[in-house]
Structures
1.
Amino acid sequence: MIGRLNHVAIAVPDLEAATAVYRDTLGANVSAPQPVPEHGVTVVFVNLPNTKIELLHPLGENSPIAGFLAKNASGGIHHICYEVEDILAARDQLVNTGARVLGDGNPRIGAHGKPVLFLHPKDFCGTLVEIEQI
C-alpha cells in the first residue's frame, strides 16, 4: 500500500536558524517559508535527491506544533510521510486492519497541495504517520 518516503517533518523553535543550518551548514537547497494556516504551521522544504525534510514552525497560538515544542523545546522529528496512490482506499484498508485515523477521517489538503491523513502514533511504533496521495 505505501509507496516511497515523501518527507520527514522536523518541528523547530526557530525556522530561520533551522533553515540556515540546512542551507549554509549542510549546503542543501531549501524553499522559502510557506504558511499553511489550515494546518497551523509555516513550512520550509529541504529538497534532497531522494526525499525531502519538512521544517515545521507554529503558525498561530493553536498550532499543534506549539504543543509539540512545549514538550520538546529544541524541536525534533514530528512525523514521517509516506506516499499512497489512493488515499481513500488506503484509509479504508488501514481502518479495516485496526489503525486509527486522526481527525474526522476525511483527507485535508496538505502543504504540497495534495490530500493527506494522519495516523495515530500508538498504532505505528510511537511514530506519527502522514499519508499523502501522489
2.
Amino acid sequence: MIGKLESPEGARQNDGIAPVFALPGWSILSLTGTDALAFAQAQLMNDLTRLADGQWQWNGWLNPKGRVIALCIALRRDAESLWLLLPDMPAEELADGLRRYVFRSKVVLAPLPDWQAAGRITVTCEVTECAIREGSDGALTLPLGPLDDSRISWRQLLLLPPGADAVMTDMESWSRWLLADLRAGLPRLDEQQREQFTPQMLALDRLRAYSVKKGCYPGQEVVSRTHYLGKAKRRLQRFRMPAGTDVKPGVAISNENGEPLSTLLNVVECDGHSEALAILDESAPAYFRDQQLERLPLLDLLPT
C-alpha cells in the first residue's frame, strides 16, 4: 500500500467542519445466523467472546501455516450477526475462502457492497474505546484514535448505509489516513503480501489482534509455538526513507554489504521524504541506496 501526502497543512479543518471522504479498498463482509459467531470463533485468530453487542476488535484470518491472509476489524452487531471490515481484501474473496469451511453451520456469508466505508478527521477528542456509535440515519461511527502523537486531530471510521449520498475520494485526506496507519504499525497487505507473515512478524500483539488461549483456529499451533518459545526474530519496523519514485512496496532494503534483508510493505510520501514499514531483525542496520535508514518508533495511535 502506497500513499502520498503533499501538504499536511492543506487538510486542516475549516470552521470546525470535518469533511467525510471515501476510503478506497475497504469492504464489509456480513456473517449472520445462529452459528455465525461460533463459526467465526473457529476460523478467526482473535477471541470473539470478549465482545458485547456493538463492540469491535482487531482480528484476522490465517492459513494453516499461521500466515496472515486478511487483517480486519471484527464488529459484533448482535448475538447472530458479525461484520468483518476489510481494509485491503475484497469481501467476496474472503467469503469464498471461508465458505469452504461452513459445512453444516447455520451461517450466511454476504458482502455488503451497498455500504460505504468513509473516514473523517476531526478536532474533537474521541474516547478510543472499541465501541460503535449508531446515528439516527443508520450510519455507524468507530473512533480510531488520534491522527498522530500531537493528539490534536482524531480519526473516525464511518460505515454509511445503503441510500446515503456517495462519498468522494480525497487523496490528501486518504494519504493522511494511510500515514496514521503506517505510524501506528497497522500493516496494509496487498495481494502479493498475503500469506507471507505471521501475526508476530506483523507485530499484531500491539493491537491485541490474536489470541493464544481461545482454542483451535487455522494456524493457531504456529502462533502459539512462536508465542511460548520466544518472540519472532523478524518483526515490523518503521523507517524514514529518502524520497524517490522507486521507494515503493516490494523494493528491497539491504545490509551494509548490499545483501537483501527485506522488502518494503507500506510506503507514504510526506514532507520531502517517505516513511515505510518493513519486517526484519530489530537490531539489524538497514540500508537503501548505500544510505543507512533511520528507524522510527511505532506510535500508540490505535485503540485495542
